[in-house]
Amino acid sequence: MIRSDFREGLRGGFPIMLAASPFGALFGALAVDNGFSIADAVFMSATVYAGASQMVGIELFGSNVQPWLVVLSVFAVNFRHVLYSASLAKHIRHFSFGQKLIAFFLLVDPQYAETEQRGERGLPVTFAWYAGFGLVIYVPWIINTLIGAIFGQLIGDPKAIGLDVLLPIYFLGLVMSFRTRDRFLPIVAVSAVASVAAMHFVGSPWHVSIGALAGIVLAACLPPKRPAVEVHAVEQEA
Amino acid sequence: MDAQHLDLLYLIVAAAVATYVTRFGGYVLITQLKNIPPRIESALNAVPAAVLTTLVAPAFVYGGMDVAAAMLVAFVIGLRFSTLRMLLVGWITVMMIRHLIM
C-alpha cells in the first residue's frame, strides 16, 4: 500500500520533473554567472527549493542589492505558498508532525496543484504518495542545478532549443485543470489583466502578487454562492 | 572561508528560512481559525487559478509571437489531452516557428 502509493507519486511527479529540469540547470548556470560557486548554487537549490525566487535571488545578489532586500524579495515571490499551505490544510491534516514538516518543505507549485486536485477527486492524499511526488522533483532539481552550474556555458541560449516555452505551457495546463471550479472565468480574467498590467507598470516579480491578489479579492467580494453541491469533474488526465 | 562568502551562505540560509515560513505559515493561520468564513473560503478556493494565471498571462502577452502561438496551440490540446501532450505539441510548435518560419 505504502509502496504502491509512493510509486504512484513518483510516476505523477515524473513529467513535472522533466519539465522543471531545464530550469534547474538554467538556475545553476545563471547562479555561477552571478558570482555563486557551484556549491553555493547547489546549496541554494537544496535549501530554498523555489525556482522563480531562486532566480530573483541570484539576480539581485549579482547586482549587489542589500541582503535584507534580497531576502524580502524572495519572501514576496514565495508569498503565494502561504495561500497554498492554508488551502492544503484540509488534505494533510492527518499527517504526523514530522511528516508535515517535510511536506511543507516540498510544497512547490506543482506539488500544491496536484495534491489539491487529488484531494478534490476524492483520492487518498497519503504521505507516501506526497513524498514520492515531491522527491522525484526535488532530488533531480538539485542534480540539475549541479549539472547546470558545471556546464553553464553549454546551455547558452535556452530559446534556441525551445526550452523557454515549457514553463508557461506547463502553468497554462495547471490553470486549465481548475476550470470546473466556481467562478473560474472571472477570476482568471481579472488575474490575467491585473498581472499583465502589473508587469507593464510595476515590473517582475510583483506581477505575481498583484495579479493573484486581484483574482482572490474578486472571489472574496462576489456574493457567496448557494451552498453548492460539490460536483468535481474527474480530470481526464492520467 | 572568507567573510564575503560567509555572508552569501547566511543570505541563502535566510532566503531558505523565509521560504519555509511561507510554506507552513498558511497552514498555521488556517488551523487556528476554528470556522472558516465563507468569503475566506471562496478566496482560498480562488488561489490556485489566480496565482497560476499570473505566470501564464504575462508570458502570453510579452513572450513574443512564437511563444503566444505555441501557448494557443497548447491551450486547444489541453481542452482534450494531458499536460504532457500540451508541452510536447507546444514545444514542437515553437521549434517549427523558430526554425522554419522565423
From TrEMBL, chain A:
Pfam families in the record: AzlC (PF03591)
Chief location of this protein within or outside the cell: membrane
Subcellular location, record wording: Cell membrane
UniProt GO BP: L-valine transmembrane transport
Residue stretches spanning the membrane: 12-32, 65-83, 127-154, 160-177, 184-202
Alphabetized InterPro entries for the sequence: Brnchd-chn_aa_trnsp_permease
Keywords: Cell membrane, Membrane, Transmembrane, Transmembrane helix, Transport
Membrane topology: Multi-pass membrane protein
Keyword Magnesium applies: no
Coiled coil spans: none
Cellular component terms per the entry's GO annotation: plasma membrane
Family per similarity comment: Belongs to the AzlC family.
Xref: PANTHER family: INNER MEMBRANE PROTEIN YGAZ
Name recorded for this polypeptide: AzlC family protein
Automatic annotation (TrEMBL), chain B:
Keyword Membrane tagged: yes
Transmembrane segments: 6-30, 42-62, 68-94
Entry keyword set: Membrane, Transmembrane, Transmembrane helix
Superkingdom of origin: Bacteria
Protein name: Branched-chain amino acid transport
Organism: Sinorhizobium medicae
